[in-house]
Design a protein that fits this description.
mainly beta, 380 residues, 5-stranded antiparallel sheet, 13% helix, Glutaredoxin, 23 strands
Length: 380
């Protein structure tokens, strides 16, 4: 992440921050995973569980704090994750973690969570791991991906205005901070995300962590003012766009989907939580497609992945259209919609362009319930 420190010309009012032990990434609408490389040994582990079969060792780091972990992956037996929650080097006296596995098309993905001590408070850390034998992810064979699900929320004065803010992770980690510029209480993407010098119209500021508080300080740099984000709340009209799908179809959204209800799905093959959502998407498509449901995928995959994307969607039974530019986070539609984290989804009425539901009600078990309600409504 970018370090958000600069020489202060003027310090504005400090934010009043409250600690949030879990659920912060859902509030933020996304997360930024960190790679933890694993080895066969660890000097940080003083005592390990006695029944380990195939352990790999690594470390999770949050600011100045680090937590050793052990991932035990024996062949033919369930994998287990152990985390040194209290940082004492003993991995036998910590709260139990959750670590679940799901196998799709012969590849197993693991994900779960653990508790760690941050500033004397219990905090949740989420982690996931791709199949170590996946040839498409050979570079991640010895990698665990993790991110803090904890964070802080409060207020911050910038110039003459005061905004609600929140961020996931530790204050000392130079976090990605959400600023509620339009006052709707929702994360509306890049226009409300601060990671470096920013300008909301009253000059350029930067963020500075100092004495357990987060400050906004005038910057010696100058950047252009950031326009307000699009309104992507329920009932708003979705921003229109034109694009060409990977099958060559020209799409004018939403007018190309007259008479349909469209799930606009921002995702990527490299995104673990996106892949975890695929069974829910395919199940929903099979059930509701005959009732007028369409899905339009917006791929945030990187360059030169077109053939891989085509093979992937065929293998995973994803018959709906995909838009792919190979621009990663700079994909045109993603920037237009202010997408800062994935998976991100909107349910849209193809006739009116009205947003029917947002990502919070379009993930996990909530997806099927939401679609059932919306597709059975005669008047939207």
């Amino acid at each position: 992440m970018t370090t958000l420190l600069a020489s202060a010309l003027l310090v504005t009012q400090a934010s009043n921050l409250a600690f949030v032990p879990s659920g912060m990434t859902a509030k933020m609408g996304g997360y930024m995973p960190v790679r933890a490389e694993m080895t066969a040994k660890s000097e940080a582990v003083k005592k390990a569980p006695a029944d380990l079969k195939a352990p790999m060792y690594g470390t999770m780091v949050f600011g100045a704090k680090s937590f050793a972990f052990i991932l035990d992956e024996p062949e033919g037996a369930p994998a287990r994750l152990f985390v040194d929650s209290n940082g004492n080097g003993d991995l036998t006296d910590d709260p139990a973690t959750t670590w679940q596995s799901r196998t799709t098309n012969g590849m197993t993905m693991h994900q779960g969570s653990a508790k760690v001590s941050i500033s004397g408070q219990e905090a949740t850390v989420n982690a996931y791991r791709f199949d170590k034998n996946d040839p498409a992810r050979a570079a991640l064979k010895n990698t665990l991906l993790y991110y803090g699900d904890f964070g802080y929320q409060g207020t911050l004065a910038v110039g003459n205005e005061t905004f609600k803010i929140m961020f996931a992770g530790d204050l000392g980690s130079s976090p990605r901070v959400w600023v509620d510029r339009n006052g709707n209480g929702k994360n509306d993407g890049r226009a409300e995300t601060v990671m470096g010098p920013f300008n909301f119209g009253s000059g350029t500021y930067e963020l500075k962590a100092e004495g357990g508080k987060l400050l906004a300080v005038q910057s010696q740099k100058s950047v252009d003012a950031i326009p307000l984000p699009p309104d992507l709340s329920v009932g708003a009209i979705v921003p229109p766009f034109e694009a060409v799908a990977t099958d060559g179809t020209k799409i004018s959204f939403p007018s190309s989907y007259k008479g349909k209800t469209v799930l606009l799905d921002f995702w990527a093959m490299w995104c673990g939580p996106c892949l975890a959502e695929l069974p829910n998407l395919t199940k929903a498509y099979e059930r509701f497609h005959s009732q007028g449901l369409e899905i339009l995928g917006i791929s945030l995959d990187q360059a030169n992945q077109a053939e891989k994307l085509a093979a992937f969607t065929k293998e995973r039974n994803m018959p709906w259209r995909q838009i792919y530019e190979g621009k990663y986070w700079d994909i045109t539609i993603g920037k237009q919609y202010g997408v800062e984290g994935i998976p991100f989804a909107l349910l849209v009425d193809g006739d009116t362009g009205k947003i029917l539901a947002t990502v919070q009600s379009l993930r996990g078990e909530a997806l099927e319930k939401t679609l059932s309600q919306m597709l059975n409504k005669s008047d939207r």
